[in-house]
Amino acid sequence: MRNTLFIFVLLAVSACPAAAADNLNVSYEQLLREITTPPASASAPEAKAAFAAQAEGRYWVTIKASDKRERTALLEAGFDIVEVEKDRVSGIAGPELDGLLSSKSVTVLGKTPLAAYASSFTKDFPSQDAIYHNYQETTDLLRSLAAANSDIASLFSIGKSVEGRDIWCLRINSGAKGETPSSKPGAFFLGNIHAREHLANEVPLLFAAWLLEHRNDAEAKKYISSLDIYVVPMGNPDGAEYDIKTGNYQYYRKNMAKNAGGSRGVDLNRNFDSWWCEAGASSYPGADTYCGPRAFSEPESQHIKRFMETRRNIRTHISYHTYGSLILYPWGGSDDNVPDERDRKVFIKAGDAMGKLTGYYSQKSSDMYVATGDSADWAYAATGAFAFTFELEGRGFYPGSAIVKTSVEKNVKAGLYLLSITDNPYKVI
Q: Helix-strand-coil percent breakdown of the chain, rounded to 5?
C-alpha cells in the first residue's frame, strides 16, 4: 500500500521526462525488491471485528462436483467457485444459499464460517501487505509514469465507476497520446475487474513500469515505437477499495452497484454481452456471480466496451485475474470451439507459449466450467482481438507480498511475448 521509494524515485525524475529512463538511478530489479519487502505490523482488533461483521452468514464451503456440468450449475445457483479439484469445488456461499446447502441436491464436504476461514491466513492490506497499491497509490504511480515519460506515455480516464472514480488508462505510444487515434497495432492489458484480486492490479501496473524503464532496450524500444499499448490496471476501483476499507479483506468480488432488494454489486465478468446470463451466471442480485439486470448494465463494463469498440486497432488483449495459474481463451460461455480454425490455432499456440513462460496451464476457458457474460469472450467476438484471461498464481486471493516479485517477473515475459505477436498474431501458426 505504501510504495514510497518507487513513487519518490518516479516523482524525482518527472521534471525531465525525455531523459527519464536514462536518469533513473534505481534499477527495475531493485525497485521490485524494495516494493516486495513486507513491513512488519499486526492487524488491529477493530479491523478484525469489522471483517467478522461483514462476513456474518458467509461460509467457505467445499461441495462435491465431479464435472464441469455440475460446476456450472453451482455457479448458476449463485455459488462463488474459487478452487476446482477433480471431484470437488470450494468457494464462498452467502445466506441466500442456505436452502441449497441443506438440500439433498448437493453433497457438502466442508463448511466453515468465512471469518474463521480468513483468520487462518495473514491478510491485512495496510500492514503486512502494504506493498500492494490501493486506488490512490495506483493513480499516483500512473501519473508519475506518464509524467516521467511524457514523450511516449500519456494518461487518461476511460470513464467513471459507479461511485465516481476514474478508471485510468496508461497509454504507451511514440506517435499518439491520450485518446488520439492510431493506426499502429494495439495491445490492451486490463487488471482487477474482480475486487478481491489485488495481484491482478500489480501485474499490469508493474509491467507498464518495466516497459518504461526499459524503453531504450532493443526489445522494449521496438514495441514502443511500433505498437499502441494500453494498460488499465484497475478496472473495478470501487470494489477494490471496498475490499480493503476496514483494514481486513472482505472477500468482495463485484462492483458497488445498488441492487433491488438492498444487496450490492454486479459481477463485472458476467455482465458482458456474450451469452449474457445463461450458463454459469446467477440472476439473483445477492449472489457473487450476479450477472446484473441486463448486459452492460454497469458503467465499468460499458466503459471497457466503448474503449475497445473505438480502438479497432487492438489485436491482442489480456484480462488479469486470480488465482489458479491458468491461461484461458474463448470460449468460456460455450462448450464449442471458436468457429474460425485459424483463430483457434492462434489461441492454442500463443496460450501454450505464454504458459511455458509463466508455468501456467493453457486451456479453453469452458473446459473448467461454462461461465457466460465473460469479458474475453465478448472482446474476441465483438472486436476480433485475441483475448486471453490470465489466472495468476497463488493459493488464495490474498497470497501475501512475497508472491508479487515472482508473479510480475513471469508475466513481464508473457506480456512481452504478447507484444511480439501483436503486429500479426497469425504468425504463430
A: 40, 20, 40
Question: What one-character DSSP code corresponds to residue 290?
Answer: B
Q: Which positions ≥6 away from 213 have C-beta within 8 Å?
A: 21, 24, 27, 28
What pLDDT does residue 117 have?
Answer: 75
Alpha helices in 292-401 (DSSP H): 299-309, 341-358, 375-383
Q: In one letter, which amino acid is 273?
A: D
> Which residues contact residue 185 at a Cβ distance below 8 angstroms, ignoring those fewer than 6 apart?
226, 227, 228, 313, 315, 422, 423, 424
Catalytic residue among 179, 391, 393, 409: 391
Report which residue type is found at 394. Answer: G
Residue pLDDT, tens place only, 130-150: 889 999 999 999 999 999 999
Q: How far apart are CA 421 and CA 349, in angstroms?
A: 11
Cell output for 372? 457466460
Contact yes or no for 107/63 (Cβ under 8 A): yes
Domain presence at residue 104: no
pLDDT digits (tens, 9 = 90+) for 81-117: 888 888 898 888 888 888 888 887 899 999 888 877 7
Q: Where are the beta strands (DSSP E) in 262-396?
A: 314-322, 326-329, 361-364, 386-392
Hey, is 186 helix, strand or coil? strand
Pick out the chain residues at pLDDT < 70: 1-31, 33-56, 118-128
SS3 106: coil
Q: Residue 183: which CATH number?
A: 3.40.630.10
Amino acid in position 410: K
Clarify whether 241 is annotated catalytic. no
Q: Which of 405, 247, 389, 272 is nearest to 324 (CA)?
A: 389
Residue 162 structural domain? 4-40+124-249+288-428
> Is 371 inside any structural domain?
yes
Alpha helical stretches, state H, 126-255: 135-148, 199-213, 218-226, 237-244
Q: What are the beta bridge partners of residue 213?
A: none
Angle between the N-to-C axes of helices 4-13 and 28-35, in degrees from 0 to 180, rounded to the nearest 10: 140
Q: Does residue 28 lie in a domain region?
A: yes
Whole-angstrom Cα distance, residue 296 to residue 272?
6
pTM of the model: 0.84
For CA atoms 153, 184, 180, 156, give the dihedral sign.
negative
Helix (H, G, I), strand (E, B) or coil at 303: helix
Task: Evaluate whether residue 177 is within a structural domain.
Answer: yes
Domain count, the chain: 1
- φ/ψ (deg, to 5) at 188: -125, 120
Q: 289 near 280, Cβ under 8 Å?
A: yes
